[in-house]
Amino acid sequence: MPSETALALHVRPEFENPDVEKAVVGDIERRLSLWERASNMDPVRKLSVLVLVIVAWELYTRIGNINELMFPTFSATGTALVNAVVNDGLLINVWNSLSLLFTGYVIGIGIAAVLVVLGVWTRFGQDLLTTLTAMLNPLPAIALLPLAMIWFGLGNSAIIFTLLHSIIWPVALNTHAGFQSVGETLRMVGRNYSLTGLPYIYKILIPASFPAILTGLRIGWAYAWRTLIAAELVFGGQVMDTSGMLGAEGSNAGGLGWIIFQNQMENQTPYVFAGLFTVIIVGILIENVVFRNIEDRTVRKWGMQRS
Questions:
Q1: Could you tell me the pTM of the whole model?
Q2: Which residues lie below 8 Å from residue 165, measured CB to CB, with a gap of 6+?
Q3: Mean pLDDT in the chain?
Q4: Per-residue pLDDT reduced to its tens digit, 244-258
C-alpha cells in the first residue's frame, strides 16, 4: 500500500502562482459616466449628427464667403424659418400638406390592402397584383401629374391621385412579399385552428409579416411626402374658391411646396432653405415619433427585430 505521503497532491511550484488570490479582477459593477449614458441614447446620437451638419453648414458659408443668394448661412435660414412660422403662417401650410397627405395615405393603404387580400385568396388576384406592380411601380408618380391635372383639374384631387400611385405599390409589394415569407409552421397553426379568410390573414399572416408591412408603410410615406412636395411646387394644391379659381397668391391655402416655389420666384433663398429644412424636420418627426413608436411597440417588443 502506498503511503499517505505518496498519495498526497504533488505541487509543482513552477506551475503554481501563490499570489493568484491577490489578483485584481476589476469592477464587476460600476456606474456609467455621463458621457457613456449620453452616448447610449439614440436621440442624443442623432441630434449630435444634426448639430455637426449645422456647424459645417455655417462654417462653409461664412469661411467660403458664399453669396447668400446662392447658399445662405444656417443663421439666415433659421431667422427666415422663425419669421415664416411667426408672421407668415408656415405651420398652416405644413398642416395643409399633411392633411392632404393623410387623405391620400389612408386611401392608398385601403386600395393596397384590397389588392393584397385578393392576391392571397385567388390565383387571379396574385397575377393581377404582380403584373400591376411590375408595370406601375417603376413609373415615377410625378410623371402622372400632367395627366391628373387634365383629368381632375388644378385642385387637391389631382394631387391625391398622384399620391395614390406613390403609396399603393410599395405598400402592396412589401405586404405581399411578407405574406409569402411566412413559414409553413405558422400556416399549419392557422389551419389547425380552422382559420380561413380574413381571420387567417389578420391573426396569422399580418403578425408574422409585420416587419415587411411596416417597411412598406415607411416607404409609401416617404414616396408620398416627396411626391406631394414636388406636386405642390407645380401649382401648390391650393383649394378652389367659389369661383373655381385658385386661392390668391400669398394666401395660406397652399401647401409647403407652394411656399418653397413662391419664395424661389421672389429670390428669397433663405426662405427657400427654410422651407426645405421644414420638409426635413417633418420627415424626421414622422419617422421617429410615429413609425419608431409603432416599431418599438410591435416588432421589437415581439423579438422580431434587433434594436
A1: 0.78
A2: 136, 139, 141, 144, 227
A3: 81
A4: 334 444 445 678 888
Q: Which amino acid is at 167?
A: I
Spatial separation of the C-alpha atoms in residues 158 and 106, rounded to whole Å: 16
CA-to-CA dists, residue 205 to 4, 76, 102, 186, 200, angstroms: 72, 51, 26, 8, 7
- Helix/strand/coil (H/E/C) assignment for every residue in 10-36: CCCHHHCCCCHHHCCCCCCCCCCCHHH
Q: Which of 109, 141, 284, 111 is nearest to 213 (CA)?
A: 109
Domains of the chain: 89-268 (1.10.3720.10)
Residue type, position 226, single letter: R
In angstroms, the CA 239 to CA 124 distance is 40
Residues 6 or more apart whose CB falls under 8 angstroms from that of 233 comprise 257, 258, 260, 261
Amino acid (one-letter) located at 40: N
Residue type, 124: F
Closest-CA residue to 151 (of 167, 137, 164):
164
- Secondary structure class of 230 (helix, strand, coil): helix
For the stretch 13-48, pLDDT in tens is 666 666 655 656 666 666 777 777 777 777 778 788
CA–CA distance from 125 to each of 179, 181, 204, 206, 258 (Å)? 14, 18, 20, 18, 39
CB-CB contact of 179 with 209 (8 Å): yes
**90 contacts 84 by C-beta, under 8 angstroms:** yes
- At 217 the pLDDT is 93
Query: Rounded to whole angstroms, how far apart are CA atoms 307 and 304?
Result: 10
Q: pLDDT tens digit string along 91-132?
A: 888 998 999 999 999 999 999 999 999 988 888 888 898 899
